[in-house]
Design brief:
About 70% of the residues lie in helices and about 0% in strands. The protein has 15 helices and no strands. The N and C termini lie far apart (about 60 Å). Helix 3 crosses helix 15. The chain has about 325 residues and is mainly α.
Length: about 325
Amino acid sequence: MSASTQIRPRATMPAAPARPGQRRARLRSTITRWLFVVPAAVFVALFFGYPVVKNVVMSFQDYTTKTFFTGEAPWVGLGNYVAVFSSSVFTTSVVNTALFTAGSIVLQFVLGLGLALFFRRHFPLSGFLRGLLLLPWLLPLIASSAVWKWLLDQDSGALNQLLGVVGIGPVPWLVSPSLALIAVIGVNVWLGIPFNTTILYSGLQSVPPELYEAGALDGATGFKAFRYITWPSIRSVVSVVIVLGVVYTLKVVDIILGLTGGGPANSTQTLATNAYHQSFINFQFGIGAAVSNVLIVVSFVFAMVYIAISRKAVDE
């Protein structure tokens, strides 16, 4: 063989055409995937997409009880939004929503984290107590609010009767403008502790015990172990708990309506209860839709934050 002999590249063979059986298998696989997607897409479009679109359209109309009889809803443009933002009740609702959300989230998280750390230690009846802790989460919210309304009643409430034993006079928990919001926050914290404890306890269970053993050799015990081992390990879980808690708290209606109805003197009126009152008490559905759209935008922002945090946690 001479040195000048050249090596010719191997000719590429054309791709074999798909067999009829393979094409049918691919078609069957595609149809199967769509059969799973289409029902969920239709459900979301009908029960989430349509109400949101209808609510947005309604917020630009003079939609009242008269509309149900005449079918007429005159277009008012931004008139409903102008009425909402120029109302003093809206300003009060925004402030109360911020205070209600911030107070609930901080207390729920602190108490939930404390209970999660407590239940991380195994002791007799720990499982039973963890199950008992879920009881407020399992009760219907309107039933919980009815029980708490009785407990916090100024004249015959169990809490004031207990305080009377130690010489403290009746406290107007739900009828005082300066105390009503605090009482409502307290009840909402009681309802939210099980959620925070459950999620944070699951996050603590994922921390490898080897980290604590290695940290103990370096002197990281007690608070140092929590600061340098526990907290960094559950940071992503903490972010999810806080963001979800904010979204859930922003739309709380039943607890406030069951306890105070938004009063006294609008001291517990939030964006969610304001939208309810405008729509189903004043029957100004257009204005109520405008208020609820503001709440939807705020919730959407926090929902996007939650999605971003979730993706970051998956990447890590």
